[in-house]
UniProtKB/TrEMBL annotation:
This is N-acetyltransferase domain-containing protein. Residues 7-141 form the N-acetyltransferase domain. Pfam families: Acetyltransf_3. It comes from Bondarzewia mesenterica. InterPro entries: Acyl_CoA_acyltransferase, GNAT_dom, N-acetyltransferase.
Length: 141
């Protein structure tokens, strides 16, 4: 398990699939992550998609609020081997956790982890310009 000042980042468990599927079935979260392309799926379909996502990255961590143990969301870091040693970050939190500074906290941690622990030369991410809250977090990095 990893920790930031207020959050725990831990390995995913099968029991997390319900929370992850609910997170991705939120239309606003889909819009912010996928643009105008919103796909409403059954919980089983989301579970199948998420299983593939969780097997590929160098890091996939469930983010929980330490004080309450509540599910906040997840962070992933996909590590690409080779000469450039770059990684791509993905972070998704439930709406209840927006505006608390958790995104900044986790982003600082995952960037440091990528450079210090994985030896990456570069980290990047993709974000839609209309996702202003996320853009503000990323600019602080």
């Amino acid at each position: 398990m990893f920790q930031t000042a207020r959050l725990d980042l831990r390995e995913h468990k099968p029991s997390d699939m319900e929370s992850l599927a609910a997170l991705w079935n939120d239309e606003e979260i889909q819009r912010l992550c996928m643009g105008e392309y919103i796909v409403l799926r059954t919980e089983e379909a989301w579970k199948d998609m998420l299983k593939g996502v969780m097997q590929a990255p160098a890091l996939f961590a469930i983010v929980e609020e330490r004080e309450t143990g509540a599910f906040v969301g997840f962070v992933a870091l996909h590590h690409f081997e080779g000469k450039n040693r770059d990684g791509k970050i993905g972070i998704v939190f439930g709406r209840a956790w927006w505006g608390k500074g958790y995104g900044t906290e986790v982003m600082k941690w995952v960037v440091a982890y990528g450079f210090k622990e994985l030896g990456l030369h570069r980290v990047s991410l993709q974000v839609y310009a209309f996702n202003e809250r996320a853009v503000a977090v990323y600019r602080r990095m």
